[in-house]
Fold this protein.
Amino acid sequence: MLRPVVVGVDGSPESLAAADWAAGEALRRGLPLLLVHAWEGLPSDASSLPELEAPRHWARRILLGSMDRLHERHPQVRLGAEQIARPATDALVAAGAEGELLVLGSRAFSGLGGFMAGSVALTTVAHVTRPVILVRADRTAEDDHLPDGDGRPSTRTPYREVVVGVDTAHPCDELLAFALESAALRSAPLRVVHAWHVPYAQRAAVARMSAVARQAAELALEGMLRPWREKYPSVQIQERVEHARPSQLLLEASQGAGLLVVGRRVRPPGLGAHTGPVTHAVMHHVRCPVAVVPHE
């Protein structure tokens, strides 16, 4: 049975943008799309209370309205919908675990060029066991493509590149597999970014170390990518190695990208869940969609 692309909808502009992006991704992957709306209803023995009719009506209207909109805009997508009477985070984590990936909307900062992930998105990302993609409220299909010859937005031009951040000291197959598959589905190049950073080092010390450290980092990255180049010969893989803080380098490298892919290490049960400082930073400030891939 095919795992669907799952998207959380609540009627907000950011969830509608996420639904549009998810529909495009479902088509690229040849998968169905499942819309999930969480409604914190009361137990079944209280379902006959008349005061619940209004919120129940609006909950259904949000889900049906989102379905009608997607049917009109993406008629080729196989659509399903599910309303879950649980808190939003619990509902999304449960639904996301059954999907190929989970897509969530994220609110744009006014005038700052980044976006912020609300508490629901942050908590969901930190707990879902499948890849999660965050999409800005103002994201359009044209934004995933390069501008045309006159510099105008278009959906007929090639896709923008996919960017992935890696750590050569901790190779991650899940991360590279998702990034390469995403690039292959788009016939887009993949830019693999690795940052090496010497904390608190003096400028002169960094200058002396830079040549040797850069060469070592480049060789390590080349070795990491060699088997993936053989597995995905159709994907043009470009490497970027810089002395920089990882979050800053990813913010810069993702400018003009169609998708940024980063990892999240899964913590053992009992230790809680978190996204990590680099992933947390890009989730808040990168303009393009951000895919967070959990891994061991």
